Amino acid sequence: MKIKYLLILAVATMLMASCNSKSDHKTGDLSGSIAIDGSSTVYPVTEAVAEEFRAEFPDVKITIGISGTGGGFKKFARGETDISNASRPIREEEIQLCKDNGISYIGLEVAYDGMAVVVNPRNTWLTEITVADLKKIWEPSAQDKIKRWNQIRPEWPDEEIHLFGPGTASGTYDYFTEAIVGKSGSSRGDFTASEDDNVLVQGIKNDKYALGFFGLAYYEENHESLKLVAVNSGSGPVLPSKETVLSGEYKPLSRSIYIYVNEKAVSRPEVVGFVDFYLSNVKALAGEVGYIPLQDSTYESVKQRFADFVKLHGAQDGQK
Amino acid sequence: MTNSGRNRLIDRAFSVWGVVSTFIGIALLLMFIGIILYDGLGRINWAFFTSLPSRFPEKAGIYTSMVGTLWIVVLTLILSLPLGISAAIYLEEYAKKGRFSNILEINISNLAGVPSIIYGLLGLQIFSRTMGLGGNLLAGAFTLALLVLPIIIVATREAIRAVPGSIKDASYALGATKWQTIWLQVLPGASGGIMTGVILALSRAVGEAAPLIVVGALAYVPFVPASPMDQYSVLPIQIFNWISRPQAGFSTNAAAGILILLAITLAMNLVAVYYRSRYQRKSN
Question: What is the ipTM of this complex?
Answer without folding.
Answer: 0.80
